[in-house]
């Protein structure tokens, strides 16, 4: 199949080699609405990438767009650092009323900067300040961001190597494996914590994702998370849950840890908290941990008021009742069943299908297969990315607002891409 791509010269000659997504999807996108992106030639692409989780409510969601345009039209404050504004007050009141109070979560809210890695850096810094210790435990295949502190608790070797300096004060432990006894992963850590000769100083905190996104859609069992929370309590370590990619309803409930019944000491949010793809991040923590001095951790863009406006609109529109959560869980069941059917098609069988809500991954034994599926899917008009330590997992991340018809269409396109890459891989090369 041949595509008439527009001129890419300026991207290839002027933009840094660090660019990545545009290499996989060689189109020049011009507009977007709902679950679809359109290139400058008008060709539509069904988006099962959703801004890596930043577009849970779709592109240019009309309710959020109207709120944003009305705010800008009345010359609402755009940039305010951490000054008090009407937009920030309205967001905080709405977040407390719709998210925190119904879940009996006691958190204080911190605006650390506009990106997820800012929220993680603030969480790590606060944990170390509160406990007076340096080390933090993280888990294999974790991803927490690209700044140095976040990279130190990230498992991916390629991303860690980009730091250029030693990444210290962090200790890796195995993430939950559903094929193993859930206590097995903690027994080694407990022995290290209790053994006077282990050489491991008591960490300040443990940081974990309830569902690892970049690590390959690895879903931690609720029992495993509860065991981890109990270990943290016994060992005087803070529990940090990174909900940057899986929060804001991606797994069904607003927070990905809700199913486990755990209340983390610190939670990080970003991605879809603004609802519109605007930069925004939160670090949430128990009130007794709020030991910051004024200005001790700050940032120029921690008060981006347009994001407060769209975040408030998203909470009002989608989280005053349980409708979106129920819909996401139901559609997650549909995706799981559909992917099982794809895997059952003989030679197209994949060894691992896993997910929750609208976050799903299909792992292939041939580590190059997922990237071939991604390429073929793009050619067919479907955007999806890969994840996992070797890019061996095809990752399906549709907007939470995807229609039934769009979900069916996306699964069909994915199934076709899987079948056709299997056929091409068995065709002898000339």
UniProtKB/TrEMBL annotation:
Keyword Lipid biosynthesis: no
Pathway membership, UniProt: Amine and polyamine biosynthesis; ectoine biosynthesis; L-ectoine from L-aspartate 4-semialdehyde: step 1/3
This protein's record includes keyword Transferase: yes
PROSITE patterns named in the record: AA_TRANSFER_CLASS_3 (PS00600)
Class of the enzyme per the UniProt entry, highest EC level: transferase
Key words of the record: Aminotransferase, Pyridoxal phosphate, Transferase
Co-factor requirement: pyridoxal 5'-phosphate
One matching Pfam family: Aminotran_3
InterPro entries associated with the record: Aminotrans_3 (IPR005814), Aminotrans_3_PPA_site (IPR049704), Dat (IPR004637), Ectoine_EctB (IPR012773), PyrdxlP-dep_Trfase (IPR015424), PyrdxlP-dep_Trfase_major (IPR015421), PyrdxlP-dep_Trfase_small (IPR015422)
EC number(s) on file: 2.6.1.76
Gene Ontology MF: a single term: diaminobutyrate-2-oxoglutarate transaminase activity
PANTHER family: DIAMINOBUTYRATE--2-OXOGLUTARATE AMINOTRANSFERASE (PTHR43552), DIAMINOBUTYRATE--2-OXOGLUTARATE TRANSAMINASE (PTHR43552:SF2)
Family from the record: Belongs to the class-III pyridoxal-phosphate-dependent aminotransferase family.
Name of the protein in its database record: Diaminobutyrate--2-oxoglutarate transaminase
Organism: Streptomyces heliomycini
Top-level taxonomy: Bacteria, Bacillati, Actinomycetota, Actinomycetes, Kitasatosporales
Gene: ectB
